[in-house]
Design goal:
Elements lengths: L3 H21 L4 H4 L8 H7 L2 H7 L19 E5 L5 E4 L3 E2 L7 E2 L7 E6 L6 E6 L5 E6 L9 E4 L4 E5 L4
Antiparallel strand pairs: 1-2, 1-9, 3-4, 4-8, 5-6, 6-7, 7-8
């Protein structure tokens, strides 16, 4: 006979296994891959703001609708805030309405991806190809020509406007 105790214990065991999985597996691309730019935690903290460090190095997420890059409409390039690698061209930026800067494609060689199974779902995480800094996730609900939506933390990027020629 199934009892309330059985359900409570089962739920607690499932929650415990999920938490244990999250904290015992590598949860961050830089821990499982080799990158051209590597720094110690102290070196990253010295060049990044606290919020940038939390996002780029600890895979956190900024609150939606808080990034100044949401409204950036000028021509230029979005670079990794950690190592200055150009990762997104302004021509691929679009307003997804999600509250984070969104792009339908990355600059070739700019990002790396991996499977992210956190938060009880499977997603595609994207990170800087050169330093491993966490940018956000890629979804299959974007505009053509790719059909992709790169949902990116604005604090993980810096915008460099095109120079007038």
């Amino acid at each position: 006979m199934t009892t309330r105790r059985f359900f409570l214990l089962s739920g607690t065991a499932l929650l415990g296994a999920t938490v244990l999985d999250r904290f015992t597996r590598p949860g961050f691309a830089a821990e499982t891959e080799t990158f051209e730019v590597t720094k110690t935690e102290a070196e990253w903290k010295a060049i990044l703001t606290d919020d940038q460090f939390r996002i780029l190095r600890q895979e956190d997420t900024e609150r939606p609708f808080t990034s100044a890059l949401n409204n950036e409409k000028r021509k230029g390039v979005f670079q990794c805030a950690g190592c200055d690698l150009p990762v997104y061209a302004s021509e691929t930026k679009f307003d997804s309405g999600t509250g984070w800067p969104s792009f339908w494609d990355a600059i070739e060689g700019g990002i790396g991806t991996r499977e992210d199974t956190s938060l009880f779902m499977t997603r595609v995480e994207c990170h800087c190809h050169r330093c491993g800094g966490h940018f956000g996730h890629v979804f299959d609900d974007g505009p053509q020509p790719t059909g992709k939506r790169h949902c990116i933390n604005g604090l993980a990027l810096k915008f460099v406007p095109a120079t007038a020629a």
